[in-house]
Fold:
Amino acid sequence: MSATGKLFSYPKPYATEKTEALFLAAMRENCAFHYAHNAAYRKISDEAGFSCGQLQTEEDLARLPLLPTLYFKRHASFSVPESKLAVKATSSGTGGKRSVVGFDGKTLWRELKMAVKIAKYHRLWSPKLTRYVLFGYRPEKNGAGAAKSAFAFTLLAPAVSRVYALERTETGFRPDLGKLKEKLVRYAAGKLPVRTMGFPAYTYFLLREMKAEGISVKLPKGSMICLGGGWKQFYAERVEKEDFYRLAFEVLGVDDKHIVEFFGAVEHPILYTDCRAHHFHVPIYARVIVRDVDTLEPLGYGKPGLVNLLTPAVSSMPVSSVLTDDIGILHDEPCPCGCSSPYLELLGRVGVKDVVTCAQGAESLLKGEKP
Structure:
């Protein structure tokens, strides 16, 4: 079995200290594959003076060629024939340039094994029939990656029903928060647990609207509020987590122990799931480097900078080391949850004009504007 196969078969998803050598070996395999099968990546590596053999220690990971997410919004770069791509998806921005990514069967199999172990670790699997309220798009062929991820989330517990906030109309997607409000009130009178999933902005807007209208219910036992996609650059409406949790309890009767947030990117399909202390611990399938905004030099722990995400998961595209426009801090201090893996704190995004984020698009939609 390859080093990458062994890494994604390892039973403990957060044992980063015990899998350092395995992760490095998997990264060498991944980089060598892309170097051999992707002319653009080979050229970038050669111009940077990088060779896969240079990856001998964790510190060497910082030498990997950096490809910004904006690169994938301008270039479709595949390391396998497109006929071998099992899935294609786009980044979930509702306007502007979008990344187009494709995953082959090997990549999807790794993703599945990762998701199963992480969901088990965070106790997200349930045999109970569940109703889903999704603050996003109905999935479509070759559609947004966020929509596909949200649908995959509904496989963690058997779905009785799925209702979506965004539906396609003649003029594009438009939100119908009134429909979700009506469903939540009706579901609260039933016995089946409810799981919501989607952008924090949409979830917050609905909670705020319900509170303003004096609507307060208690969702059935076992219900969860799940968040994905982040606030991105939509900070005019962003609230602190504690305020969000308080509002969720006031309106839907769901406490913070049953609020779970996910972080990821279509260019970096690794599942980051917050722990009971609401920290994004780095799983064994990835590493995070925080870099200086001006020099791109690694900053180490405790300092804010650009978030650089690394993984050997994807064989279909050279996303081994992706530079995002997220600003974050990597922490290594002990976490109350007991997990020893470092955790990432996300602070926001830099002002990249070419990037139109999910939440920015959400703001336009909610105001009735065309994205």
